[in-house]
Specification:
Blueprint (H helix, E strand, L loop, with lengths): L8 H46 L1 H65 L3 H8 L3 H81 L2 H23 L24 E4 L4 E2 L4 E2 L3 E4 L5 E3 L4 E9 L3 E9 L2 E11 L6 E2 L4 E5 L9 E8 L2 E3 L10 E2 L1
Parallel strand pairs: 1-13
Antiparallel strand pairs: 1-4, 2-3, 4-11, 5-10, 6-7, 6-9, 7-8, 8-10, 8-11, 11-12
Helix pairs in contact: 1-5, 2-4
């Protein structure tokens, strides 16, 4: 027997090596992702320390907007669970109705059989034997009688099974209804928390605006925010250089072919001055509806997904060959550092984070340290205000 299968041993060894290699590769990727996230988290903590040092009002805005993002994310999870629960409840209700219909049919059939047995009397077999004179006819009647009894027993078994199944479905249905009621309570609680967080954010933004107005430091603040963003991008680039992205197609080849990450109107354009002539827009500001989905423009890895002064909840994607895309002022972020995304994947929802008065997306494309004119990368122009 061993001789017959000896030629298969090298193949078995090869498969074992391949499986072991795949396991090692998967373990290596997981370790790499963990290391990448730890190093990006260290950068975020450094940014947070700087923010807390600079302004109490700005720290309050950060805390409120991060809280809003977390609550909105929880609400989305609850909504998904409620939809799945409602679908499960509808399915169970349909099963219950189907079982009730089958049970009614079987009960009607069983009632007919029981009535026939009652009419025949209690001692059916004995009466049959006494009333029959023809042995051949008696044999046939006995066969019919046995068949009738077996059919009646099967009907009883089916009815019993359907009753048990119905009880199980009813129990599952009650569980699902209780679960939906709990999710509704959680949703109500989260909405209350969201309302409180938005109120806290409004107070914090008002204090921040008052602080800036009293000190006349708007330009200085914008310059400081630009410095923080530059520092973040440089530090991320240094870390990500050790974990290169292998793009399916070079990002540069997509110039003029991309779709905008959100639909809306152009509020501020690339290269336009802001707060005087000292600072210019490095990207575009797109006005859109609160909660609009923000989508990835191309394949990439999430380099950053957290709060940043002036940007609010910010997502940065790395696309390879030194290219990055930035998505700021989000209301909720659905990705984490190290995640891989495909074109069109939902990264976040649009909002007012970063101290904005109206929902908008700040969008930027960078090649190394140089900001690119975003309009050159997209197939269709944005509508202007």
């Amino acid at each position: 027997m061993r001789a017959r299968f000896a030629h298969l041993l090298p193949l078995v060894a090869l498969f074992a090596c391949l499986n072991g290699g795949l396991a090692l590769a998967a373990g290596g990727r997981e370790a790499e992702l963990t290391e990448l996230r730890q190093r990006i988290d260290a950068i975020k903590q450094d940014i947070d320390r700087d923010t807390r040092k600079r302004s109490q009002a700005q720290s309050a805005v950060q805390e409120a907007e991060q809280q809003i993002g977390l609550i909105n994310r929880k609400l989305r999870e609850i909504s998904t669970q409620r939809q799945a629960g409602q679908a499960r409840r509808n399915k169970l209700s349909a099963e219950r109705n189907e079982l009730l219909g089958e049970l009614g049919h079987e009960q009607a059939a069983l009632s007919g059989q029981v009535r026939a047995a009652y009419v025949a009397g209690r001692e059916e077999r004995l009466k049959l034997l006494l009333n029959q004179e023809d042995p051949a006819r008696l044999g046939r009647m006995m066969v019919y009688y046995d068949y009738f009894n077996r059919m009646r027993a099967k009907t009883i078994d089916r009815v019993s099974g359907q009753i048990l199944a119905l009880q199980e479905v009813d129990a599952e249905l009650e569980k699902e209804i209780a679960r939906l009621e709990q999710l509704e309570k959680e949703r109500t609680d989260e909405l209350s928390r969201l309302e409180n967080a938005r109120s806290q954010r409004a107070d914090a933004v008002a204090r921040l605006d008052q602080d800036l107005a009293s000190k006349g430091t708007q330009v200085a603040q914008l310059e400081e925010q630009a410095r923080v963003l530059e520092k973040l991008v440089q530090e991320l680039r240094a870390v990500l250089g050790e974990f290169p992205v292998q793009a399916q197609e070079p990002f540069a080849s997509l110039r003029g072919k991309l779709a905008w990450p959100v639909s809306g109107r152009l509020l501020a354009d690339f290269g336009q001055p802001r707060a005087g002539q000292r600072i210019k827009w490095n990207g575009v500001l797109v006005g859109t509806r609160q909660g609009s989905e923000i989508r990835a423009i191309y394949h990439g890895r999430v380099a950053y997904a957290d709060w940043l002064p002036g940007m609010g909840l910010l997502v940065i994607l790395e696309h390879g060959d030194g290219y990055m895309s930035l998505y700021g002022h989000n209301d909720t972020v659905y990705v984490a550092a190290g995640d891989w995304v495909a074109p069109g994947d939902v990264l976040a929802t649009a909002g007012e984070s970063g101290g904005r008065a109206e929902p908008a997306l700040y969008f930027e494309i960078r090649k190394g340290k140089v900001s690119q004119n975003p309009h050159r990368w997209f197939a269709k122009p944005l509508a202007k205000r």
